[in-house]
Amino acid sequence: MKNRVIALLTVALLTSTVIAGCGKSNAPEEAPPAAAEESSVEEVAPEAPAEASTQEAVMESVPEITASLDEAIGAGIILCNNNLFKAGETQGEGHILMDKDEPDADGNQKCYILEMFGAYEFQNGNFVKCAGTGAIPAVVTVQSHDDGSFEFISMVEAEDGSNFVDSIKKNFPEALWSRCITIDPDDMNELEKQERSYAEEYLSSIGREDAEIGDYADFDYKILTDEGVSVDVSNKMLEVQSGDGFEFFCPNWIGDREVLDDNVRYIYKTEYDQKKKQIIFSKVLYETGEVLESSVYDAKTGDKVE
């Protein structure tokens, strides 16, 4: 099924478009991974998700997605979230169809789901969810066709924060309120399983099945202050990484992350030389190990070493 969904998106980008809405609850914020009832975002890579302005569906021109109901919903989730999370080298989704309305006179049908989305990248050799959401209740609208296929039309998520419960009661049938407001662990596990199956399939397709899949919190990361670098110098390095140089893509931990750019894989590294008391940033061509760019900073002062 997942192959069909991914292929569907690829083909749709080359074909006709329809007017559809991908409504997001509100702008995602940087936060550590969490298993909360409302949406949560893991954001450890430099790429930041674009902000969403309102919970109401934003009408956009998006590719036509016509498939089985399950595939149309899944492809729609990926499409809408790809508009928000500009990170990772592959994406995955999970969804649970809790209920659906009967189609109206035009064939439009509301589907009430729980959904999850994740973008994945390599960090220290692991395949890590670097951006995405937790479990989010959402209303997906599809249009049914005479041939039994379904066309994705729009998705509107429950609001975050103080408006969360009210938005659930406004947009979902009363029978689903409890399930939406307090996400059951079994539902969380199922959504995560579905989402990670996309990551597993992607790793298999590129011959890197041995990479461990997980959230940022599932792995140990060492930062500069763990090695005795002062907070002031560590903050100076963050300023360096906020610029427009290659350092922007280097990780904020001691280690590496991989980035695909026009199908070329690069490794961005942040290293600490304990003996020389130096912090080294580098951009390396994955295929050959050639160092393409590098910069060195004094770990005592934060000054660049000429």
List key phrases describing it.
nine-stranded mixed sheet; 6 helices; four-stranded antiparallel sheet; Nuclear Transport Factor 2, Chain: A; 13 strands; 306 residues; alpha+beta
Radius of gyration: 21 Å
The helicity comes to: 10-25%
Strand content: 25-35%
The chain-level mean pLDDT equals 84
What pattern of helices and strands is seen along the backbone? Answer: HEEEHEEEEEHHHEHEEEE
> What is the SS-derived class?
alpha+beta
**Could you give a short account of the major beta sheet?**
9 strands, mixed
Helix segment tally: 6
What is the terminal-to-terminal distance? 54 Å
Question: Structurally, how many domains make up the residues?
Answer: 2
Uncertain regions: pLDDT < 50 for 5+ in a row?
1-20, 25-45, 47-62
Number of strands: 13
The 3D shape can be described as elongated
Question: Quick recap of the structure?
Answer:
By secondary structure, the protein is an alpha+beta fold. It is built from six helices and 13 strands.
Overview of the structural elements:
The protein is an alpha+beta fold. It has two domains: 2-215, no CATH class; 221-298, Roll (Nuclear Transport Factor 2, Chain: A). The protein has six helices and 13 strands. It has helices at residues 2-12, 69-82, 164-171, 177-181, 185-205, 231-241, and strands spanning 17-23, 59-63, 66-67, 90-100, 108-123, 126-132, 136-144, 150-157, 213-215, 255-261, 264-273, 278-285, 291-298. Strands 1, 2, 3, 4, 5, 6, 7, 8 and 9 form a nine-stranded mixed sheet that branches. Strands 10-11-12-13 form a four-stranded antiparallel sheet, with no helix packed on it. Strand 11 (264-273) and strand 12 form a beta hairpin. Helix 1 (2-12) packs across helix 2 (69-82). The chain is elongated, with a radius of gyration of 21 Å.
